[in-house]
Design a protein that fits this description.
Blueprint lengths: L12 H35 L95 H11 L2 H5 L4 E9 L5 E8 L4 H10 L8 E3 L2 E3 L1 E9 L6
Antiparallel strand pairs: 1-2, 1-5, 3-4
Helix pairs in contact: 2-4
Length: about 230
């Protein structure tokens, strides 16, 4: 028995029948699918909830017509300033009786003088610090004595504890250079040091302050420093 030379020509009756059945059923499957899809879409639109748009309409307000401002009447420009008249030399005669009489020391009298001012009360400047005019400041004359007094008056408890500080004192010095009053200006932070400083400055002696060639009393500021010896 001779076999066919081309393998593609080998086809069984069953294969040809299945192919024919597939081709014949394509049309029915296609239209059936289209019909089912159409019915499904119509059912979805028919049974789905209805969607409505919100009402966003509005009624415009009536516009108020603003009346225009009244017309402003512009005033006329001011009149031009007249030019000053040109001065001329007068020819009128002037009576000599109208002139002011010549005043001399011989004819001047002091009958109409105002009363003298009342003498101002003398203010005691030794009670509170205030500025006094001077040209030469006072200088301390006994610095060594003041240093010895400082060592003696230094509070022992503070000195042994290594506590020091600077106290600023106001001093009132009279015309002879003697301290007549003392006030605390700036504290050192320790009452014991401040009290000692107020005692120490009473020992100080100064040269008098001068205003030109006159001795004057005045206030000065003096720093009193306590330095404790630190243990090694």
């Amino acid at each position: 028995m001779n076999e066919p030379s081309n393998p593609s020509e080998m086809a069984t009756p069953e294969m040809g029948t299945a192919n024919e059945r597939f081709k014949q059923s394509f049309s029915s499957w296609f239209w059936g699918s289209m019909t089912a899809a159409t019915v499904l879409h119509f059912a979805a639109f028919a049974f789905s909830p209805q969607m409505e748009t919100a009402d966003v309409s509005f009624t415009p307000d009536e516009m108020e017509v603003v009346p225009p401002p009244p017309d402003v009447e512009i005033p006329p420009p001011p009149a031009a300033i007249r030019r000053p008249a040109t001065p001329v030399i007068s020819t009128a005669a002037i009576d000599e009786d109208l002139t002011i009489e010549t005043t001399t020391f011989d004819t001047w009298t002091s009958d109409d003088l105002p009363p003298p001012p009342e003498e101002a009360e003398t203010t005691d400047i030794s009670q509170a610090p205030q500025f006094v005019v001077h040209t030469v400041r006072p200088a301390m004359l006994n610095q060594d004595e003041v240093n010895r007094t400082l060592e003696r008056e230094y509070p022992a408890l503070l000195k042994d504890a290594g506590i020091g500080g600077t106290t600023v004192v106001h001093l009132f010095i009279d015309e002879e250079g003697i301290v007549r009053n003392q006030l605390l200006k700036e504290t050192s932070g320790h009452a014991g040091l401040d009290n000692a400083a107020l005692k120490i400055v009473t020992v100080a002696r100064f040269s008098p302050a001068m205003n030109r060639d006159k001795a004057v009393a005045l206030w000065i500021s003096l720093n009193v420093t306590f330095e404790a010896n630190q243990a090694d």
